[in-house]
Design goal:
Layout (H helix, E strand, L loop, with lengths): L3 H5 L17 H18 L8 H10 L8 H18 L10
Helix pairs in contact: 2-4
Length: about 100
């Protein structure tokens, strides 16, 4: 477990999981890039000293409360898009002889 300050400084590369990141606004993408590593660590229970806002965010993301901040809304939209990308079958190219 590491302090939350460690995760705040880490970049988040999860946007590559999306088939179409253009469904997010540029502001939402910035928020996800900035807070994604911390949110992921919070969800994995890897943060040593989460504050009240962090705990509230976990509650929101685990669908126990409604989102109110732009970060919460952006993360939920990102999660929804990531789930859609995981369930959509990928197109396979035909092999030619």
């Amino acid at each position: 477990m590491l302090p939350r300050e460690h995760y705040i400084k880490q970049p988040f590369y999860g946007l590559s999981d999306l088939n179409n990141a253009s469904d997010l606004t540029s502001a939402q993408m910035r928020l996800i890039k900035k807070h994604g590593a911390l949110i992921t660590a919070l969800l994995n229970d890897e943060v040593l000293n989460p504050n009240l806002a962090d705990l509230r965010l976990v509650k929101i993301v685990t669908n126990k409360s409604a989102p109110t901040t732009p970060v919460e809304q952006a993360w939920l939209k990102f999660e929804s898009l990531r789930e859609q990308a995981a369930t959509k079958p990928t197109k396979k190219l035909k092999k030619t002889a």
